[in-house]
Amino acid sequence: MSGFARRELLKGLGVAALGAAAWLHLRPVSNAQTAKRVLRVAHLTDIHVQPEGKAVQGMINCLKAVHETPDRPNLILFGGDNVMDVFAQKRERAKTLADLWRKMVMDYCQIPYRICIGNHDVWGWNKETSGCTGQEPEYGKKWAMDTFGLQTPYYSFEQAGWKFVVLDSTYPHGNDYKGRLDDEQFEWLKEQLRRTPATTPVLILSHIPILSASAFLDGENEKSGDWVVPGAWMHIDARRIIELFYQHKNVKLCLSGHIHLLDRVEYNGVGYICDGAVSGAWWGGNYHQTPPGWGLIDLYADGTFTHEYRSF
Question: Are 162 and 171 contacting, i.e. CB atoms less than 8 angstroms apart?
Fold first, then answer.
């Protein structure tokens, strides 16, 4: 059954399940009186869907809230960690989550969407727990590409006069990962920005934040007496990426998730928004001070934008 035809199920969720809508506003950077809005985007990151617990019902609630938003978004950006985890899971669990993700999107998503790969969407990189050898045909990011219908792990597209660049932040590090671009992807990014006219505003989507304030607060990162942010929590190659953006003033907005906390940093004229998590504390309520939610972004023809974080 497609779309929201399953009204009986959704009727049971009702207002009590959705709760009173909480609206967390971040300061707009567009003059709505003079700028023309060209696109409305919903950013849903860190859904961590799984068959257990509240995850399925929660994802339905969130997609329902997006679809029933007055002046419905034109595009959904799924920001990575779309499934609970396949990084450290065996093949059977990975298949269960792939089947569930595809069914959820088919049944409950009527808005066009694009997908970013998160670290939990990479199958088997923790070989100790996944049992993978690395020789499996669907090993690693191939699993994510097959599950999400991607030709490549990073890509770009244009819509409504904006250029969108979707990055792949997950870089192998033993049985774990770091947040960074490999050299091939960085050169690709340089070429993408070089070829984009200076008059075309650019939105960058990554799973792991390129720059974030909340990365400092996700854990006791000051317990040594100095602030220490792990390289898996924020792009360890942020310096070279930021320097690249400085050469291209049309880079306006960088969206990310991963930390499950909400923040906005402005640096060199670029807005960096870490957009909380649909799953909150992995379907256990608020994560620190940030409730489960999603980002609503309005993009304007002049390269400005507004952002709201909406809980559901």
Answer: no
Whether 216 maps to a domain, the answer reads yes
Least-confidence region, from 30-44, 103-117, 178-192: 30-44
The answer to whether position 128 is within a domain reads yes
CATH of the domain at 113: 3.60.21.10
- DSSP H helices, the chain, are 7-18, 55-67, 91-108, 127-130, 141-148, 183-195, 238-246
What pLDDT band is residue 3 in, cutting at 50, 70 and 90? very low
Neighbours of 235 (CB within 10 A): 26
Nearest to 166 by CA among 174, 178, 157: 157
pTM, two decimals, is 0.91
| 5, part of any domain | no
Pairing of strands 170-173, 176-179: antiparallel
Angle at 256 between CA 201 and CA 180, to 5 degrees: 95
Check if the beta carbon of residue 79 is closer than 8 Å to that of residue 42: no
- Asked, for residue 10, whether it belongs to a domain, the answer is no
Domain that holds residue 114: 23-311
Angle 203-49-221 from CA coordinates, rounded to 5°: 65
CA-wise closest residue to 167 among 175, 231, 150, 159: 150
